[in-house]
Amino acid sequence: MIIKSAEFVISNTDYQKCPPSAKPEFAFIGRSNVGKSSLINMLVQRKDLAKVSGTPGKTQTINHFLINNAWHLVDLPGYGFARVSQEARWNFGRMIEEYLQNRPQLFCTFVLIDSRHEVQKIDLDFINWMGIKQLPVAVLLTKTDKLKNSELAKSCKSIEQTLLNHWEDLPPIFITSAVKKSGRDKVLDFIQTAIDSQKNV
User: 3.40.50.720, 3.40.50.300, 3.30.780.10, 3.40.50.1820: which CATH number matches 6-199?
Assistant: First the structure.
Protein backbone atom coordinates (compact mmCIF):
# COMPACT_ATOMS: atom_id res chain seq x y z
CA MET A 1 0.00 0.00 0.00
CA ILE A 2 1.23 3.45 -0.94
CA ILE A 3 0.16 6.23 1.40
CA LYS A 4 -0.92 9.15 -0.77
CA SER A 5 -2.82 11.18 1.80
CA ALA A 6 -3.39 11.26 5.56
CA GLU A 7 -5.55 13.86 7.23
CA PHE A 8 -7.04 14.44 10.64
CA VAL A 9 -10.83 14.09 10.79
CA ILE A 10 -12.11 14.34 14.36
CA SER A 11 -11.36 13.76 18.04
CA ASN A 12 -14.08 12.85 20.50
CA THR A 13 -14.88 10.91 23.66
CA ASP A 14 -18.08 9.23 22.46
CA TYR A 15 -18.22 6.50 19.84
CA GLN A 16 -21.59 7.86 18.69
CA LYS A 17 -19.80 10.99 17.50
CA CYS A 18 -17.30 9.05 15.38
CA PRO A 19 -17.49 9.62 11.61
CA PRO A 20 -20.75 8.21 10.17
CA SER A 21 -18.77 6.89 7.22
CA ALA A 22 -18.74 3.13 6.66
CA LYS A 23 -15.09 3.22 5.57
CA PRO A 24 -12.95 0.47 7.18
CA GLU A 25 -11.32 1.39 10.46
CA PHE A 26 -8.06 0.12 11.96
CA ALA A 27 -7.42 1.09 15.57
CA PHE A 28 -4.14 1.37 17.47
CA ILE A 29 -3.84 1.02 21.23
CA GLY A 30 -1.23 0.17 23.86
CA ARG A 31 0.18 1.00 27.26
CA SER A 32 1.45 4.50 27.90
CA ASN A 33 4.90 5.17 26.44
CA VAL A 34 4.82 2.15 24.11
CA GLY A 35 5.64 4.33 21.10
CA LYS A 36 2.18 4.46 19.54
CA SER A 37 2.34 7.97 18.07
CA SER A 38 5.80 7.41 16.60
CA LEU A 39 4.66 4.16 15.00
CA ILE A 40 1.53 5.74 13.51
CA ASN A 41 3.59 8.57 12.04
CA MET A 42 6.04 6.06 10.59
CA LEU A 43 3.26 4.03 8.97
CA VAL A 44 1.71 7.02 7.20
CA GLN A 45 5.06 8.77 6.61
CA ARG A 46 4.06 11.93 8.43
CA LYS A 47 6.16 13.60 11.12
CA ASP A 48 3.35 14.85 13.30
CA LEU A 49 0.04 13.31 12.25
CA ALA A 50 -0.17 11.74 15.70
CA LYS A 51 1.23 14.00 18.39
CA VAL A 52 4.34 12.56 20.05
CA SER A 53 4.79 13.51 23.69
CA GLY A 54 7.21 12.74 26.48
CA THR A 55 4.23 12.58 28.82
CA PRO A 56 2.65 9.09 28.99
CA GLY A 57 -1.10 9.02 28.46
CA LYS A 58 -1.17 12.10 26.23
CA THR A 59 -3.85 10.65 23.96
CA GLN A 60 -7.15 10.97 25.82
CA THR A 61 -9.64 10.93 22.97
CA ILE A 62 -10.67 8.74 20.04
CA ASN A 63 -8.82 10.25 17.08
CA HIS A 64 -9.81 9.51 13.49
CA PHE A 65 -7.48 10.04 10.52
CA LEU A 66 -8.56 9.48 6.92
CA ILE A 67 -5.95 7.58 4.90
CA ASN A 68 -5.97 7.64 1.08
CA ASN A 69 -9.61 8.74 1.32
CA ALA A 70 -10.29 5.01 1.70
CA TRP A 71 -9.96 3.98 5.35
CA HIS A 72 -9.68 5.40 8.85
CA LEU A 73 -6.72 5.01 11.15
CA VAL A 74 -7.98 5.37 14.73
CA ASP A 75 -5.62 6.44 17.50
CA LEU A 76 -7.12 5.27 20.81
CA PRO A 77 -6.18 6.37 24.34
CA GLY A 78 -3.62 4.12 25.95
CA TYR A 79 -4.31 2.01 29.00
CA GLY A 80 -2.29 2.20 32.22
CA PHE A 81 -2.29 5.97 32.59
CA ALA A 82 0.14 6.83 35.37
CA ARG A 83 -0.78 10.49 35.83
CA VAL A 84 -4.56 10.65 35.63
CA SER A 85 -7.21 10.19 38.27
CA GLN A 86 -8.95 6.89 38.97
CA GLU A 87 -12.19 8.37 37.64
CA ALA A 88 -10.49 9.40 34.40
CA ARG A 89 -9.05 5.90 33.98
CA TRP A 90 -12.54 4.44 34.33
CA ASN A 91 -13.93 6.92 31.82
CA PHE A 92 -11.17 6.09 29.33
CA GLY A 93 -11.82 2.39 29.78
CA ARG A 94 -15.54 2.79 29.16
CA MET A 95 -14.94 5.03 26.15
CA ILE A 96 -12.56 2.51 24.58
CA GLU A 97 -14.81 -0.49 25.25
CA GLU A 98 -17.88 1.25 23.82
CA TYR A 99 -15.97 2.21 20.68
CA LEU A 100 -14.54 -1.28 20.15
CA GLN A 101 -17.88 -3.02 20.63
CA ASN A 102 -20.06 -0.64 18.63
CA ARG A 103 -18.15 0.09 15.40
CA PRO A 104 -19.07 -2.55 12.82
CA GLN A 105 -16.63 -0.92 10.38
CA LEU A 106 -13.72 -1.66 12.76
CA PHE A 107 -11.72 -4.29 10.88
CA CYS A 108 -8.88 -4.81 13.36
CA THR A 109 -7.32 -3.36 16.50
CA PHE A 110 -3.53 -3.34 16.69
CA VAL A 111 -2.28 -3.79 20.25
CA LEU A 112 1.22 -2.39 20.72
CA ILE A 113 3.62 -4.18 23.07
CA ASP A 114 7.13 -3.01 23.96
CA SER A 115 9.42 -5.78 22.68
CA ARG A 116 11.98 -5.04 25.40
CA HIS A 117 9.72 -6.36 28.15
CA GLU A 118 7.61 -9.39 28.91
CA VAL A 119 3.91 -9.11 28.20
CA GLN A 120 2.44 -7.09 31.06
CA LYS A 121 -0.73 -8.25 32.79
CA ILE A 122 -2.63 -5.23 31.51
CA ASP A 123 -1.61 -6.11 27.92
CA LEU A 124 -2.68 -9.70 28.35
CA ASP A 125 -5.96 -8.74 30.01
CA PHE A 126 -6.81 -6.42 27.12
CA ILE A 127 -5.89 -8.95 24.41
CA ASN A 128 -7.87 -11.68 26.19
CA TRP A 129 -10.86 -9.33 26.55
CA MET A 130 -10.73 -8.74 22.79
CA GLY A 131 -10.75 -12.51 22.27
CA ILE A 132 -13.71 -13.01 24.60
CA LYS A 133 -15.64 -10.33 22.73
CA GLN A 134 -14.57 -11.94 19.42
CA LEU A 135 -13.08 -8.68 18.17
CA PRO A 136 -10.30 -8.90 15.54
CA VAL A 137 -6.89 -8.16 17.04
CA ALA A 138 -3.25 -8.11 15.95
CA VAL A 139 -0.07 -7.46 17.94
CA LEU A 140 2.65 -4.96 17.05
CA LEU A 141 5.98 -5.39 18.84
CA THR A 142 7.53 -1.92 19.13
CA LYS A 143 11.02 -0.51 19.75
CA THR A 144 12.70 -3.60 18.30
CA ASP A 145 15.63 -1.46 17.13
CA LYS A 146 16.75 -1.30 20.76
CA LEU A 147 17.36 -5.07 20.88
CA LYS A 148 20.08 -7.25 19.40
CA ASN A 149 18.86 -9.95 17.03
CA SER A 150 19.32 -12.66 19.64
CA GLU A 151 17.47 -10.60 22.25
CA LEU A 152 14.63 -9.91 19.84
CA ALA A 153 14.28 -13.59 18.96
CA LYS A 154 14.13 -14.46 22.66
CA SER A 155 11.59 -11.72 23.31
CA CYS A 156 9.36 -12.83 20.43
CA LYS A 157 9.41 -16.43 21.62
CA SER A 158 8.52 -15.38 25.16
CA ILE A 159 5.64 -13.19 24.01
CA GLU A 160 4.28 -15.89 21.71
CA GLN A 161 4.43 -18.49 24.50
CA THR A 162 2.63 -16.16 26.89
CA LEU A 163 -0.17 -15.67 24.38
CA LEU A 164 -0.38 -19.40 23.60
CA ASN A 165 -1.07 -20.01 27.29
CA HIS A 166 -4.39 -18.28 26.67
CA TRP A 167 -5.04 -18.61 22.93
CA GLU A 168 -5.35 -21.74 20.79
CA ASP A 169 -3.96 -19.85 17.80
CA LEU A 170 -1.75 -16.79 17.86
CA PRO A 171 -3.17 -13.52 16.55
CA PRO A 172 -1.10 -11.89 13.79
CA ILE A 173 2.16 -10.53 15.25
CA PHE A 174 4.32 -7.90 13.56
CA ILE A 175 7.86 -6.81 14.44
CA THR A 176 8.14 -3.05 14.07
CA SER A 177 10.47 -0.13 14.66
CA ALA A 178 9.54 3.51 14.17
CA VAL A 179 13.26 4.34 14.03
CA LYS A 180 14.25 1.82 11.37
CA LYS A 181 10.81 1.82 9.74
CA SER A 182 10.77 -1.96 9.92
CA GLY A 183 7.45 -3.77 9.68
CA ARG A 184 5.81 -0.90 7.81
CA ASP A 185 5.17 -2.75 4.55
CA LYS A 186 3.88 -5.86 6.32
CA VAL A 187 1.43 -3.92 8.46
CA LEU A 188 0.14 -1.89 5.51
CA ASP A 189 -0.14 -5.05 3.39
CA PHE A 190 -2.16 -6.66 6.19
CA ILE A 191 -4.50 -3.66 6.21
CA GLN A 192 -4.84 -3.72 2.41
CA THR A 193 -5.56 -7.45 2.39
CA ALA A 194 -8.27 -7.00 5.05
CA ILE A 195 -9.90 -4.24 3.01
CA ASP A 196 -9.71 -6.24 -0.22
CA SER A 197 -11.14 -9.39 1.37
CA GLN A 198 -14.14 -7.44 2.63
CA LYS A 199 -14.80 -6.08 -0.87
CA ASN A 200 -15.01 -9.64 -2.16
CA VAL A 201 -17.56 -10.76 0.43
Answer: 3.40.50.300
